[in-house]
Amino acid sequence: MVSLEVTCGNRSITLRTKNSSKAKDWVAAINDAGLRPPEGWCYPHRFSSFAPPRGLTDDGSKAQWFIDGHAAFEAIAFAIENAKSEIFICGWWVCPELFLRRPFKDHTSSRLDALLEAKAKQGVQVSGIRCELHFFPLFLPVNMRRFVCLFISKSVSY
């Protein structure tokens, strides 16, 4: 383990890396940032943020914005189909019969339970977290119990 201390004014932070080449990468990146012009970082930004807005192409972020269910469900189906080792699901209302692609009759294999079962059979670990929301007592427990029972019956870990 290699550590590196960065100090600016009266503040300092210790960064730890696995090897010296990573530490050298950090030093180079910090020095490079110090040599660049301050534009973009020294002005107020939307929502009073200190940092300029960044997108998928600028910083390599994997976060995406969706404005409708069609694009979001398509991205979810794509992510499940391309999962190699694990799938995590977290939600307060997860319906196993949900079709992620439309029209339904053209995409019968795009049901959430079918996609997850297929990935589990390929050896991908499927896990989920059920969020407890007590202000939906009539709907949530029934649906989530059904979801859990469906996965347990198909030998998918939940």
From TrEMBL:
Entry's SUPFAM superfamilies? Phospholipase D/nuclease
| Alphabetical list of InterPro entries matching this protein | PH_domain, PLipase_D_fam
Keyword Lipid metabolism annotated:
yes
Carries keyword Lipid metabolism?
yes
Keyword vocabulary terms for this entry: Lipid metabolism, Repeat
Q: Which GO terms describe its cellular component?
A: plasma membrane
Give me the reactions it catalyses.
a 1,2-diacyl-sn-glycero-3-phosphocholine + H2O = a 1,2-diacyl-sn-glycero-3-phosphate + choline + H(+)
Positions in coiled-coil regions: none
Q: Where is the PH domain?
A: 1-35
Output the Gene Ontology terms for molecular function: phospholipase D activity
Mind listing the GO biological process terms from this record? phospholipid catabolic process
Protein name according to UniProt:
PH domain-containing protein
Q: Which organism is it from?
A: Carnegiea gigantea
